[in-house]
TrEMBL record, chain A:
This is Hydrogenase expression/formation protein (HUPF/HYPC). It comes from the Bacteria. PROSITE patterns: HUPF_HYPC. Transmembrane segments: none annotated. Pfam families: HupF_HypC. InterPro entries: Hydgase_assmbl_chp_CS, Hydrogenase_HupF/HypC. It comes from Mariprofundus ferrooxydans PV-1. Belongs to the HupF/HypC family. GO terms for molecular function: carbon dioxide binding; iron ion binding. GO terms for biological process: protein maturation. The lineage of its organism: Bacteria, Pseudomonadati, Pseudomonadota, Candidatius Mariprofundia, Mariprofundales. NCBIfam families: hypC_hupF.
From TrEMBL, chain B:
The lineage of its organism: Bacteria, Pseudomonadati, Pseudomonadota, Candidatius Mariprofundia, Mariprofundales. Keywords: Iron, Metal-binding. GO terms for biological process: protein maturation. It comes from the Bacteria. It holds the Pfam family HypD. Belongs to the HypD family. It comes from Mariprofundus ferrooxydans PV-1. PANTHER family: HYDROGENASE MATURATION FACTOR HYPD, HYDROGENASE PROTEIN ASSEMBLY PROTEIN HYPD. This is Hydrogenase maturation factor.
From TrEMBL, chain C:
Pfam families: AIRS, AIRS_C. Belongs to the HypE family. It comes from Mariprofundus ferrooxydans PV-1. This is Hydrogenase expression/formation protein hypE. It comes from the Bacteria. Residues 42-155 form the PurM-like N-terminal domain. One of its GO terms (biological process) is protein maturation. Residues 167-312 form the PurM-like C-terminal domain.
């Protein structure tokens, strides 16, 4: 359910509540109506032409760090 | 792709899978329901199943909006297009889903109905503006992820006084369906992989009641394969420890409270629907939303005085049991014979997220022999 | 002096009636731009001498929305498409025939742009359009313009390429990145528009094929993975030859933009159309040499060996995923549509 992909915000059009997002060279205008705040450089989850939520870079890094930790655990295993 | 490729790393997946194998108790089974079709799709597309030990089993849930939409709702939409001659706009996912009597939106379009596939809910507004002399209906489906965009366009339509635009609302809610499956108890679920993007909207706290009431652990899991495998590890650990907590693996997108702006927008435009029929699950109270009276002018069910159409289940099709997690697709008599992706009988064979389509498309290589 | 008002004019029913208006259209548009002696003779057919040996013929109807897209248009596409179908037998294409079905009201300026593009593609390929036909249908009964092209060619004496010749152990080569055409088309389709520098890969592949068969005449199968993409072509060849195929996802060239667009729209690059790529199946001992030859050609610099042919009673195409799993690469059910779930 609910295909949503993380894409980078390239520019904002606050008047229209839209953002231009980029996904590896693919640019698409999406609505930012569902977000309280969004800035250029943020990654947002795009679903049916709407930015659903911002990706939390700190949390993503934590998850990746945890992966690394678990891999170390496995290697010791 | 940032935030995608890192979470598709095969080596990380193998390492996490080895930890799972080391931690599962040989004597017991771990029946894990992935609620979402997105997870079903990821599990099959990436071959996550192959990495799991024998006693970890994925039970496929009802979280595929096109799969749970009753055939009668599709027939109603076809009638709007054919009898009321509206421009019917919908997401492409719905086009091939069987309505009753071997019909579908795709076939209705071929017969001449004006049915248009859209990518975004906002596209429907543009179509309505471009066709002021026609009635334009948005056949809206989806869980809490897809509901806020519909709410957003309803709000815009009202502000614009767009009087040729209405929504045929079929938005459904995740927690009630989950509660229903757990209360029925027939799927024998030991743990739940919770939705990714639904949870981004409704927040992780929305599942607290499920876990408390039915003593089942739930881990909100991202849709990438390493997310899924890590979530399985988290579930295995909870099950081994006898815990039943809501945990959140997908912290990069899901908070405890979710997207409150989106929630407020949904609240403003939609209200609880007393009863809604789900394909497979039957009529469930308070499991879907309807358009508030303030927006009644934009409610297709009211404008066109739409009546519920009851449709009989397809003979031999066990989609209902598959959607409840009771049966696997390959236990269906029709699977792969009378029901294939080319000629689907049940909804689960249509969507690439449907359990049957996923089994059919991705699972069959296990049966091949003589591979080199 | 021109009797056609190209700038403002539109196609009218009279342009297809066979009368003076038809003749004017043919002379001032088709004969003028296609510009070759066989067509200029003004006959309803083209007569020419043929060399000895095996000839091939192929025909392809071209319908596309939008008619003009990044990297091409229906005109160039209708030339490349048929040249490629002829070339996939290993043949050198000789001549093309073209038939147009045009909708009443279609702007002459657009038609001229299409004809010029077609003429340019045919001249660049060295395969002239030597005969043709034009019909006009009432407004609402066509989609602007449909073009059917038919091509003929000559197969070199020692070449025997056919979809049923793949054998277990053979290697599978693809000539370059997949999905470029389909994504370029989608990017300009109404309601779906997205920005990209991606262009269609539409190209005539006959010179590539000529270089390939000159060095490895024993090539078993050639096919251009157009509609239905690479996945469909591999399944077709597997079924025709009664074999299975095992491919590696990491070996298949896919541009980042194509991957990005596919993630965004819920599509799979394996099923996206190509118009300037070919799939080749070749005996293992010839594969490396052939690959080197292909990579020297400008249209196949990114050619890659993507998998092997195997014995498989079920004739399945199975892919080892980049992630480390395996999955069946099945036939496409219906058309591939963008999805939300």
């Amino acid at each position: 359910m609910c295909l949503a992909v993380p894409a980078r915000v390239e520019s904002l059009n606050p008047a229209a509540s839209t953002a231009m997002i980029d996904l590896d060279g693919i640019r698409k205008e999406v609505s930012t109506q569902l977000l309280d705040e969004v800035a250029v450089g943020d990654y947002v989850l795009v679903h049916v032409g709407f930015a659903l939520e911002r990706i939390d870079a700190v949390e993503a890094a934590k998850t990746l760090a945890l992966f690394a930790e678990l891999r170390a655990q496995d290697a010791e295993g | 792709m940032k935030y995608v490729d890192e979470f598709r790393n095969g080596d990380t997946a193998s390492a996490l899978a080895r930890l799972i194998r080391a931690e599962v108790k040989p004597g017991r089974n771990y029946r894990l329901m992935e609620f979402c079709g997105g997870h079903t799709h990821a599990i099959f597309r990436f071959g996550v199943n192959d990495l799991m030990p024998e006693n970890v089993r994925f039970i496929h849930g009802p979280g595929c909006p096109v799969c749970v939409l009753p055939a009668g709702r599709i027939e109603s939409a076809i009638r709007l297009a054919e009898e009321e001659r509206v421009i019917l706009c919908t997401y492409a996912d719905l086009m091939r889903v069987p309505a009753g009597s071997r019909d579908s939106l795709h076939k209705a379009k071929a017969r001449g109905a004006d049915i248009r596939m859209i990518y975004s809910a906002t596209d429907v507004l543009a179509i309505a503006q471009a066709n002021p002399e026609r009635q334009v209906v948005f056949f809206a489906i989806g869980f809490e992820t897809t509901t806020p965009p519909t709410a957003a366009v309803l709000k815009i339509a009202k502000a614009m006084q767009l009087n040729n635009f209405t929504v045929f609302c079929n938005h459904v809610q995740t927690p009630p369906a989950m509660m229903h499956i757990l209360s029925a108890g027939e799927a024998g679920i030991d743990g739940i992989l919770g939705p990714s993007h639904v949870s981004a909207i409704i927040g992780s706290r929305a599942y607290a009641d499920c876990c408390d009431k039915y003593r089942v652990p739930l881990v909100i899991a991202g849709f990438e394969p390493v997310d899924v495998i890590q979530s399985v590890l988290m579930l295995v650990r909870q099950i081994n420890a006898g815990e039943a907590e809501v945990e959140n693996q997908y912290t990069r997108a899901v908070s405890q409270t979710g997207n409150q702006k989106a929630q407020a927008l949904m609240q403003e435009v939609f209200e609880q629907r007393p009863m809604f029929e789900w394909r497979g699950l039957g009529s469930l109270p308070e499991s879907a939303v309807q358009i508030r009276s303030e927006y009644a002018a934009f409610d297709a069910e009211k404008r066109f005085n739409m009546k519920e159409i009851a449709t009989a289940d397809i003979k031999g099709c066990i989609c209902p049991a598959v959607l409840r997690g009771v049966n696997n697709p390959d236990e269906c008599k029709l699977f792969g014979t009378a029901c294939t992706p080319e000629d689907p009988k049940g909804a689960c064979m249509v969507s690439s997220e449907g359990a049957c389509a996923a089994y059919y498309s991705y699972g069959r290589y296990r049966e091949t022999t003589g591979t080199t | 002096m021109s009797r056609l008002d190209i700038k403002h004019g539109i196609i009218e029913m009279g342009h297809g009636s066979g009368g003076r208006a038809s003749a004017t259209l043919i002379e001032e548009l088709f004969i003028r731009h296609f510009d070759n002696s066989l067509l200029s003779q003004g006959n309803d057919q083209a007569a020419f001498n043929v060399p000895a040996g095996r000839m091939v013929i192929s025909t392809d109807a071209h319908v596309i929305t939008p008619l003009f897209f990044p990297g091409g248009d229906i005109g160039s596409l209708s030339v490349h498409g048929t040249i490629n179908d002829v070339a996939m037998s290993g043949a050198s294409p000789l001549y093309l025939a073209a038939s147009f079905i045009i909708e009443e009201g279609f702007p002459l300026a657009d038609l001229e742009a299409i004809v010029i593009s077609m003429a340019r593609a045919s001249k660049a390929a060295g395969v002239p359009v030597v005969t043709g036909d034009t019909k006009v249908v009432e407004r609402g009964k066509g989609d602007g313009v449909f073009i059917t092209t038919t091509g003929i060619g000559i197969v070199p004496a020692d070449v025997d390429i056919s979809g049923d010749r793949a054998r277990a152990g053979d290697l599978i080569i693809v000539s370059g990145s997949i999905g470029d055409h389909g994504i370029a088309i989608l990017s300009s389709r109404e309601g779906l528009e997205f920005g990209t520098a991606m262009e269609s890969d539409s190209a005539a592949l006959h010179t590539l094929v000529a270089a390939m068969v000159a060095d490895v005449p024993g090539i078993r199968c050639l096919r251009d993975p157009t509609r239905g993409g690479l996945a469909t072509t591999l399944n077709e060849l597997a079924r025709q030859s009664g074999v299975g195929m095992r491919i590696k996802e990491t070996a298949i060239p896919v541009k980042a933009e194509v991957k990005g667009a596919c993630e965004l729209l819920g599509l799979d690059p394996l099923y996206i159309a190509n118009e300037g790529k070919l799939v080749c199946i070749v005996a293992p001992e010839d594969a490396e040499r052939l690959l080197t030859i292909m990579q020297k050609h400008p249209l196949a610099q990114n050619a890659a060996i993507i998998g092997t042919v195997c014995t498989d009673a079920q004739q399945m195409v199975v892919m080892a995923t980049a992630f480390g799993g395996k999955r069946v690469v099945d036939w496409l059910a219906g058309e591939q549509l963008p999805r939300i779930c």
